[in-house]
Amino acid sequence: MGQLISPPSIIHLKPGFVLACALVGAGLAMSAPMAEKRTDDPGASSEISLLRLSYERDLIEASLAPVKEQITTLGTLEKQFAAERDYDDAITARDERKRLQNELARLDKELLLLQTREQTLKASLLPDRIKLPIDTATLSGLRLEGGAITGWSKVGASATWKLPALPPGGYEVMLRYRCGTAEGGKLLIKEARFTLTTSIETTLKGPEERSAGTLKISDGSGTLTLSAQSLITDNLMQLLAVELVPATR
Question: What pTM was computed for the model?
Answer without folding.
Answer: 0.60
